[in-house]
Amino acid sequence: MTQAEVRQLLGTRTWTGNGQCMGAGGRPVTRWEYRIDVSGRAVHYCVDFDYIGPSGAPAVFRTERFLTEWNWPWWCPWAAKSRA
Q: Which of 1, 41, 47, 57 shows a CA-CA span of 20 to 30 A to 7?
């Protein structure tokens, strides 16, 4: 996928920067991160682009998806209690 296709599919990104790995030609990959709220939980999508497309155009190299763990406040009656 190209950057335009990802932008059309996921919308406006929340963060742009470099990924944690090196791509073609020793250049760091470009990372776009998206945060989308689904049923009260944050879902994060990370899309890494490498410059491997025709004439060095950025193309999707890797995608990741993960949920943010949410801890219940200590005062909630249904929060998990630690057992000694």
A: 41
E-strand spans in 28-73? 28-38, 41-50, 59-67
Name the pLDDT band for 70 (thresholds 50, 70, 90).
low
For residue 54, give the amino acid letter.
P
Tell whether the model's pLDDT for residue 16 goes beyond 90: yes
Of 59, 29, 28, 31, the C-alpha closest to 44 is: 31
- For 56, the 3-state DSSP assignment is helix
Locus of tokens 């999707």? 60
- Contact between 46 and 10 (Cβ < 8 Å): no
Mean pLDDT of 51-71: 78
For the beta carbon of residue 33, count every other beta carbon within 10 angstroms: 15
